[in-house]
């Protein structure tokens, strides 16, 4: 099963693209924070950064309401795609949004 749930902050303002087909996509980075214990047993906060893409109705929601720093909960799936640049294959993994809640 390919299922991802994340709660975090919009680390960047969404970027919007229109594909040649006319379909729109919003791409942004979501920052999540986790508290872990270090070797001495002290609590330490760590950040992770996640590439996220949103399609369909979520593009319109993000265009109207999406601002850097806002709290979001997203549910989606992990997608990997590739492209060629200068003759080399580049791979990108990102979370594709199925559902989004502004917190």
Task: Give me the secondary-structure topology.
Blueprint: E1 4-10, E2 15-18, E3 24-37, E4 43-55, H1 57-65, E5 71-85, E6 88-102
Parallel strand pairs: 4-6
Antiparallel strand pairs: 1-3, 1-5, 2-3, 3-4, 5-6
Account of the protein in words:
The protein is mainly beta. The chain has a single domain (4-36, 44-102), classed as Beta Barrel (OB fold (Dihydrolipoamide Acetyltransferase, E2P)), CATH 2.40.50. It has one helix and six strands. The protein has one helix spanning 57-65, and strands at residues 4-10, 15-18, 24-37, 43-55, 71-85, 88-102. Strand 3 (24-37) and strand 4 (43-55) form a beta hairpin. The relative contact order is 0.27.
Compressed to H and E, one letter per element, the order equals EEEEHEE
Shape: globular
What's the end-to-end separation, in Å?
26 Å
Question: Helix share of residues?
Answer: under 10%
Total beta strand runs = 6
Q: Largest sheet, order of strands side by side?
A: 1-3-4-6-5
Report the β-strand fraction as a percent range. Answer: over 45%
CATH topology (fold) name: OB fold (Dihydrolipoamide Acetyltransferase, E2P)
Cα gyration radius (Å) = 16 Å
Question: CATH homologous superfamily name?
Answer: Nucleic acid-binding proteins
Secondary-structure-based class equals mainly beta
Biggest beta-sheet profile: 5 strands, mixed, barrel
Helix count from the secondary structure assignment: 1
- Poorly predicted regions are none
Kindly give the count of domains: 1
| CATH class (first level) name | Mainly Beta
Roughly what is the average pLDDT, rounded to an integer? 93
Instruction: Write the CATH architecture name.
Output: Beta Barrel
